[in-house]
Amino acid sequence: xxxxxxxxxxxxxNSLQKAFDDAKSAFxxxxxxxxxxxxxxxxRDRWLARKNGILTQANDLWLKAAPKEAKREVGQRVNEFxxxxxxxxxxxxxxxxxxxxxxxxxxxxxxxxPGIRRPLGAExxxxxxxxxxVGVFRNLGYxxxxxxEIETDYYNFESLNFxxxxxxxxxxxxxxxxxxxxxxxxxxxxxxxxxSPVQIRSMEKMKPPLxxxxxxxxxxxxxxxxTHSPIFHQVEGLAVDTNITFCxxxxxxxHAMKALFGSSVKTRFYPSFFPxxxxxxxxxxxxxxxxxxxxxxxxxxxxxxATGWIELxxxxxxxxxxxxxxxxxxxxxxxxxxxxxxxxIAILKYGVDDIQLFFNGDVRFLEQFA
Length: 370
Ligand code: 2NL
Prior knowledge:
Blueprint: H1 13-31, H2 37-48, H3 54-63, H4 68-107, H5 125-138, E1 143-144, E2 150-152, H6 153-156, E3 189-191, H7 196-205, E4 210-219, E5 231-241, H8 246-261, E6 267-274, E7 277-286, E8 295-296, E9 299-300, E10 309-318, H9 320-326, E11 334-341, H10 342-350, H11 363-366
Parallel strand pairs: 1-4
Antiparallel strand pairs: 2-3, 4-5, 5-11, 6-7, 7-10, 8-9, 10-11
Helix pairs in contact: 1-4, 2-4, 3-4, 5-10
Bound molecules: 2-{3-[(4-chloropyridin-2-yl)amino]phenoxy}-N-methylacetamide.
């Protein structure tokens, strides 16, 4: 119960002593309580307010009500008590002031300190290279198409003219989604092994003439080493129109390789095989480490095994069988397609010796490309 000033009937020395002792100990209990400036002000007003503060009440209820013969003593005690309260109140005020000054000092912000600089991220070298490749083809008027990473057997293999028993369809090479055995083969899900399915989807969506590039992530069931990663990136391209020839393919890729590796690189086309192109070719560029000479610093160039050429991508004229799957008329249109591994190109452009460096996430490696 909060202290209130009692009326006095008995003005004897003993009774007065008790009344003032009670008031004093009430003050001593209350002076330690206030935690904040507003609380402290309430406490001060409770004791010192001119109208109805505890000191004023003591004056009214004890001094004014005292009988004549007790007035002198009560007056003295009231004065003493008043002095006590005022003195303690001053101490308390100083204490609260100091505490609040300290709190302000602790909270103060030094606006002259430099700001906290957040470390800026940067484009990953693989994505940077992929965007650069895509940029070269965008400048030639190609549009960019993307598609799902989880594909069906139909889009990843069947529509691309892979025969049913092609080794790429084996679990040795392809990662299949589990529990698909009850579905017909063509509907079974897998992780796409190339971005060609996106081109099939583009041809289903759009009529010729067509020029698209399809960048994206692909998956193979390969053990990781310095040149292999189960996840890597590809950019594939496709041009379908009337009268597209192998010359168009050669001119386009020769230009793209010069744009990516410098205008002095040469290209050559070497016979190859893909189920979805006929004829097919591997594209080699003149070695960028020995300028195609096969010799570097008087020793055989290790990058091209002293051949002067580096194999970089695959390409060919779209096999007529593929047009059958997308309802294009192979007697009316022709086209070329190509596919390249982004990491392989980044490795050559930046002189990186291990593909795993792109995926380990070591910032000391990655920040060199920022
Ligand atoms: C490689 C070879 C290639 C294609 C990809 C393609 C796509 C369609 C039709 C025909 Cl829809 N071809 N893509 C063609 C030739 C080669 O990639 O070695 N990539 C890393």
